[in-house]
Amino acid sequence: MLVVFALILLALVLFATEWFPIDVTAILLMVLLMVLEPWTQISPREGISGFANPATITVLAMLILSTGVNRTGIVQLIGRKMAAFAGADRRKQLAATVGITGPVSGVINNTPVVAILVPVINDLAHNGKTSPSKLLMPLSFASMLGGTLTLIGTSTNILASDIAAQIGAESPELGLHAFGMFEFTKLGVLVFAVGSIYLMTVGVRLLPERIPADEDLVEEYALQEYLADVVVPANSPLIGQTVEEALGDDELDIDVLQLIRYGERFSDPLARKEIRESDTLRLRTNRETLEQIMDAEGLRLTGGPQTEGDLHPGEEEPVLVEVVIPSGSFLVGETLASSTFRQRYDANVLAFRTRGDVVRDRFGDIRIRVGDTLLVQAPPDSLTRLVENEDFIVAHEFDEVTYRSEKIPFAAAIIAGVVALPALNILPIVVSALAGVVAMVFSGVLKPTELYSSVEWNVIFLLAGVIPLGSALQQTGAAALLGDAVASTATFLPAIGVLWVFYIATGLLTSVISNNASVVLMIPVAASAAQSIGANAFAFVLAVTFAASTAFMTPVGYQTNLFVYGPGGYKFSDFIRVGAPLQLLLSVVTVLGIAFFWGVRV
């Protein structure tokens, strides 16, 4: 037990600090559990069992199915209808955001739903003269609330269902079983309704307008001091050199964004463009470096763009956009320099937003994390490639992107079948989901080559890595020990009070580590505690599941929060301000709902 507790402590530290990506941490734990088999009771077969676990395979299949739905453009279509309905009415905009996101997240994994809707909601706010800060956090929160509606709403529910089934098989007296498709929907509807009312009333008042309604990205990122136009005079040593030869030294931290020659603007790859007398170069750099090269190269400062419109006057195409880095992106763990982002996409990064902080210079060597936001300037064809690449969430909608809209009926029918077959007890959810994947390929909703790129492999490795940790908790008796410790609170708390303690503990734990890791750790403990006090184990498992699925208090508690962190311009404290009261409110609503629908005592 001491060894297992030590590994759990290590896991908490590594998950919270993100010294390694969370999937790498999970695999490290899996390896340690197997290496320390005499103490952890986890054999190599059990250690790698997470890869064949029904929960892991089901989540993998659901990620592919979600991508298939995305390819048809149906969610974007719903989003546009929502924007047309809402117009410039702020109340309608918020109601539409919450009202659409929640139900959709009940049948499609909520993480890709948010990734799809970030640009839709961003444009809705921009066109309706509303601050995106007022809509993007509710978008994330509504997706989490919607994920509680069905078994397949979130990977957390699927994993919790499988753990409950395993514990039920080992301890039949607990009466635990795999969740049905709609087994907790009545509680999910209650939670979604209360959460939506909160977001529409209290939440919207607590949300600050971090980004002005008349959004201008140059002003929002305060780039005026980092953009400058310089003219090349007749005596400059730069004349005759290419842009790369003259200013391509990485140590200088200068990006040449544009070359203007006799009124004609060149923004395409400029590296091989030869500099001539009287050329104007638009640079992104800091003042110190600017003064240094002006002195060295004899350049003359003529000012610089002060707004987004000044960057590309008279051009209709959006050339300045925010790009959010989702989980699974090849950029995660890389730097802009090591990833050759600029060369791949002919794109210049003007600013870098990470965990609420904006970096405007010397960001080439900063290691990129999930949720980081890049302010990118690129030609329209490069932006289209960024939009179509699942390594990025571009926070602006583009008409150039093509969807397989003719496949919408097939995708809708397949998702309906995936939901209905397990609900009617015809097929297990893992078989139904895999059959749905095959059906999407055969019907042309997805191409065979898209299957592997549809999977967020870091999520799959995270699940496979943490599942054996739950087994070690049970097999060494560590879960029973922790359960007995928490059960001791029953001497001064009623059973419903102990249930509330588990909800709060899970919510706090999920705020600093992965939601999937928290259910693996907490469900065995909750089941043991329920057994110790003679309570309904299913009620305790459900409380842990709902608490892990609704991590509102920090941007790192749930990855949908990270997706809106940058585009919303939020600070870390904003999530605490809006999320903490909601989490507390739902702790009471969920515990009372569980007590009403299922009872706390056996």
UniProtKB/TrEMBL annotation:
Pfam families reported in the protein's UniProt record: CitMHS, TrkA_C
Keywords: Membrane, Repeat, Transmembrane, Transmembrane helix, Transport
Any GO MF annotation of the entry: monoatomic cation transmembrane transporter activity
Segments forming domain RCK C-terminal: 215-299, 308-392
Origin superkingdom: Archaea
Segments passing through the bilayer: 135-153, 187-207, 410-443, 455-473, 485-506, 537-558, 578-600
GO terms under biological process: potassium ion transport
Protein name as it appears in the record: Di-/tricarboxylate transporter
Organism: Haloferax elongans ATCC BAA-1513
Record GO cellular component, one term: plasma membrane
PROSITE patterns membership: RCK_C (PS51202)
Topology in the lipid bilayer: Multi-pass membrane protein
Location(s), subcellular: Membrane
